Amino acid sequence: MDPVRNPFAPGAGQRPPELAGRDREVAAFEVVLERIARGRPERSLVLTGLRGVGKTVLLGELRSMAIRRGWGAGKIEARPDSGLRRPLSAALHRAVRELAVRHRAPDRVEQVLGVLKAFALRSTPEGAKLRDRWQPGIDVPAASGRADSGDIEIDLVELFTDVAELAADVGTGVALLIDEMQDVPPEDVSALCAACHELSQSGAPLVVVGAGLPHLPAVLSAGKSYSERLFRYVKIDRLDRAEHDRAVTAPIEREEAAIAPAALAALFEASGGYPYFVQAYAKAAWDAAPGDPITAEDVAVAEPEAAGELAVGFFGSRYERATPAEREYLHGMAVLSEGRDEPVGTADLARHLGRKPSSLSPARDALIKKGLVYSAERGRIAFTVPHFGRFLLTAGD
């Protein structure tokens, strides 16, 4: 098959040629946008799931939906040990600029931008040298007495309120999308929850959409106990067989080509229905096929190549971030789970490794912080990356 015409292109956050299996989530967000547009209160949204299930892609789709409705929209990616002020300021600056095009009162827009600048400038520690002071690139004077107290919770509530009121002026809203939300620092998590709580009570037209690993609800709950009622949680999972087949066949048919039923079954078996893997194996199968249609034999030929690329780019890059002690922990998890995507008991893991549970806590905590494992429930731990256990058992050191 002509590689130039290959419709599949696996990549981090890259939209697949067919966004299959996410109709429910897209429809739910459409309801959120419509309810907020009508002045009805609505909870913010949190998407959770393993790596490779398409959370980032879905965030991008939801952002596009908001923009098509005339909303201001900004997207950020949270990072460990990095506060929210700077990235959030940049995201909301973009959203406000999108609203400004439709607003008839430039003075009102500048007023909100001034508040936004004041909020952003508080990210610089007091007493910092001039060369260390960060400038947010907002060409208006910083406001005084609004969103500049230095208390992130107070400031975020005030900033969200002002931005939402600006959106209400033009009969629209603002969507703030936060990827890797589990990496938001605890103090900022608490502030974000408080701001979302304030917005939901007032019916302000600003919605937060977060995405993160399966333990994100626990992170939010630790920030504010009422977070389980504050957000609508949606679990993003792998594709079922019908959704998988649609994700593969629709792009192929648009290229006026075909794939045999046995080849579809083989691709589903290899990928497990995880969207990133679906793209990787389907791309390799297209390239390996000498002609139309793609057959099960083509998939068999392509499978080692796709697995090799995943071993380097998807699994290996993450494994390399682990220390020797952390790798021992990961290998122990892989052995106990027998390479399946299932949680294992931390006590069982300690016995398997011949160690005291307390001595393994530093490795576990570091792996959680690196986003390689998560606490599935009390006393149990699981990989955040699908098929990671299988990779460890087959690749070794």
From TrEMBL:
Gene3D superfamilies per UniProt: P-loop containing nucleotide triphosphate hydrolases, Winged helix-like DNA-binding domain superfamily/Winged helix DNA-binding domain
PROSITE patterns per record: CYTC (PS51007)
One Pfam family in the UniProt entry: AAA_16
Stretches for region Disordered: 1-21
Keywords for this protein: Heme, Iron, Metal-binding
Signal sequence residues: none
Domain Cytochrome c, residue spans: 168-334
Keyword Heme: yes
InterPro entries per record: AAA_16, Cyt_c-like_dom, P-loop_NTPase, WH-like_DNA-bd_sf
GO molecular function: electron transfer activity; heme binding; metal ion binding
Name of the molecule in the record: Cytochrome c domain-containing protein
Source organism: Crossiella cryophila
